[in-house]
Amino acid sequence: MSTVVMYGSVSVDGFIADEHDQPGPLFDWLSSGDVPLDESGALTVSQTSYDHTRPYWDAIGVTICGRHVFDLTDGWDGKPPSGIDHVVVVTHRPMPEGWDPDAPFHFVDGVEAAVARAQELAGNRLVEVAAGDVGGQVLAAGLVDEVRMDVVPVVFGSGKRFFGSAHAQHLLADPDVVLQGNRVLHLRYRVRR
């Protein structure tokens, strides 16, 4: 069974977007270096960030997100981001009208069904769960194996929380990755069970 990773860039005070769903400077680290992170050359990071991020991106087979993120990104125009093979969208609504049913997007009702579908599709690759409400629900369901955060030196004060509306305590192991890049601190924690 593939590893399930909750991931996102996050402010020091725990937000993945402001109250208007804007990430502000949370992705500035993706243009703060001189090492191209992908073939487009649009993303340039420090060597440390490249060495940490590129292998992670290459290992992802499926991303799980909520319908809100899907709608905000216009479904990435039917092409999963960053070379990912499939996207599983947690939603109670049907796929958008006119959506290409052959696009590698899967619309499911509920986080348990989303993780099960994602693991089928991922094979031996990682299942990534977007931080936020859906990520918090997957964590609360006990289905997250590790948490990865790209902590950016900004304080939002309010907005969309990294762990969504998770209200119970969840213990994480000590971080097994702590790396400083340009304008970012990369952290990885295993979830204690």
Automatic annotation (TrEMBL):
<dbReference type="InterPro" id="IPR024072">
    <property type="entry name" value="DHFR-like_dom_sf"/>
</dbReference>
<protein>
    <submittedName>
        <fullName>Dihydrofolate reductase</fullName>
    </submittedName>
</protein>
<dbReference type="GO" id="GO:0008703">
    <property type="term" value="F:5-amino-6-(5-phosphoribosylamino)uracil reductase activity"/>
</dbReference>
<feature type="domain" description="Bacterial bifunctional deaminase-reductase C-terminal">
    <location>
        <begin position="111"/>
        <end position="170"/>
    </location>
</feature>
<dbReference type="Pfam" id="PF01872">
    <property type="entry name" value="RibD_C"/>
</dbReference>
<dbReference type="GO" id="GO:0009231">
    <property type="term" value="P:riboflavin biosynthetic process"/>
</dbReference>
<dbReference type="InterPro" id="IPR002734">
    <property type="entry name" value="RibDG_C"/>
</dbReference>
